Amino acid sequence: MANKNEICFLCGKPRAEVGKLLKGKSGYVCDECIHEAYEVINEKEEEEISHNVKLATPSQIKAHLDQYVVGQDEAKKTLSVAVYNHYKRLRQNKKSEVDIQKSNILMIGSTGSGKTYL
């Protein structure tokens, strides 16, 4: 039989109202509070990671590709913008009203045309 004192010390819910209780030195924590804490920590870590790295502009990405690929200027421009938008979308605040659409790119060409380098 469950102890009457088995309640989550964060939210105050008894064992009967939650899935599981984890016992610690100071009391019990329910799985719901653990999940909520994980979400808060994970959101903050994602925010810190995404804003620490400087995002290269499409022109900087194209300039980098120019060092390795000769010709294919239209493909390099298209890929540069797509890569920039991809990282911008990943960095975007999930609560933002502006939605950056995901784009897919299909690269077709003969062997040796530079698809792998791009």
The beta-strand count equals 2
Percent of sequence in beta strands: 5-15%
Percentage of residues assigned to helices: 40-55%
Number of helices: 3
Derived structural class: mainly alpha
Radius of gyration: 25 Å
Low-confidence stretches: none
Q: What is the terminal separation in angstroms?
A: 65 Å
Give the integer mean of the pLDDT values. 83
* Helix and strand sequence: EEHHH
Q: What are the SSEs and their pairings?
A:
Layout: E1 21-23, E2 28-30, H1 31-52, H2 58-66, H3 73-91
Antiparallel strand pairs: 1-2
Task: Describe this entry's structure for a reader.
With 118 residues, the protein is mostly helical. The chain folds into two domains: 1-52, no CATH class; 54-118. It contains three helices and two strands; from the N terminus they run E-E-H-H-H. It has helices at residues 31-52, 58-66, 73-91, and strands at 21-23, 28-30. Strands 1-2 form a two-stranded antiparallel sheet. Helix 2 (58-66) packs across helix 3. The longest helix is centred in the middle third of the chain and has 22 residues, at 31-52. The chain is rod-shaped.
Can you give me a brief rundown of this structure?
This protein has 118 residues and is mainly alpha-helical.
Name some characteristics of this structure.
118 residues; mainly alpha; 42% helix; 5% strand; rod-shaped
